[in-house]
Amino acid sequence: MTSVISRIKNAMPSASTVLSKGLGIAALGVVLKDAHYVGKMQADLYSSEKDARSTAHYLNNSMYLGTMSKFDEKIKNLSYTTELDQTYKRFFNEGIGYIRGFTSMLTRNVIPLGLGIGATFGGKISSKVSAIGVAAYSTYRFIKNFFGLGTPGGIKFD
């Protein structure tokens, strides 16, 4: 009976391993959630800006005629309404915007990303060192953001 219990005990990871892997997974989750959120926001912003520029170009084109030709007027109006009805450009621009926002947030959070990867996928020692780094970095960020350290002064009352 004791040999079965000792085998089970030997197969179980240590508490420090579970804690370090858990901190690594939590760090990766926070970084990826923030990156996904910024990616969604940037996708909408980027595609809206591109749509606005393109629509303005076609509207401007439809407003000015070089001749009094009704045929030219119909062509210009057709190009403008086609531009208003298209959706494929927005689809691609949202993808480009998402990738830009996602990767920009990953590069801004490269320290917790690297520490999270190290804690999650590292060996015994590197995982523990990275988990300590995750804990220290998250404590620093919490204190800095909670107390507003480094934030410029606001309105001064005399």
Give me a quick take on this structure:
The chain is mainly α and 158 residues long.
Describe the structure in your own words.
The chain has one domain (20-135). The chain has 158 residues and is mostly helical. It is 84% helix and 0% strand. The chain is built from six helices and no strands. Helix 2 (15-63) runs antiparallel to helix 3 (70-85), helix 2 (15-63) packs antiparallel against helix 4 (88-108) and helix 5 (110-121) runs antiparallel to helix 6 (124-147). 19% of the residues are buried.
Question: Keywords, please?
Answer:
84% helix; mainly alpha; 158 residues
Question: How is the secondary structure organized here?
Answer:
Blueprint: H1 2-11, H2 15-63, H3 70-85, H4 88-108, H5 110-121, H6 124-147
Helix pairs in contact: 2-3, 2-4, 2-5, 2-6, 5-6
How many domains, as an integer? Answer: 1
Overall geometry comes to elongated
Mean pLDDT: 89
- Tell me what portion of residues adopts beta-strand conformation: under 5%
Number of strand elements = 0
Specify the oligomeric state. Answer: single chain
Q: Report the span from N to C terminus.
A: 77 Å
Sheet with the most strands? none
Name the helicity range: over 70%
* SSE series: HHHHHH
Poorly predicted runs of 5 or more residues: none
Number of helices: 6
Radius of gyration: 27 Å
Overall structural class, as computed from helix and strand content, comes to mainly alpha
